[in-house]
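Lab notebook: predicted structure, single chain.

Context: the supervisor wants predicted structures on file for every construct in the current expression panel, including those that have not yet been purified. This is the next one on the list. No modifications to the sequence; it matches the entry in the shared construct table.
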Amino acid sequence: MDAVCDALRDGRLGGAALDVFETEPLDAATIADVPRLVTTPHVAYYSEESLAELRRKAATQVVKVLTGHAPDYAVV
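Prediction complete. Output recorded below exactly as produced.
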């Protein structure tokens, strides 16, 4: 994260969005002077719609594998 913050401060990077940090919770003072940095909690995805989509995708993948098809999101 230090390299990202330095690059933002120096203008070598136009912007960044982070949701996972080496140390959590993040000490806000460490990024107070960093321009064009957006930070969110790791659960920023949360909504009723996203939970429904997550369940649907998981169930679809289980069905695909159990019926002999390749999963859409294979980990290689």
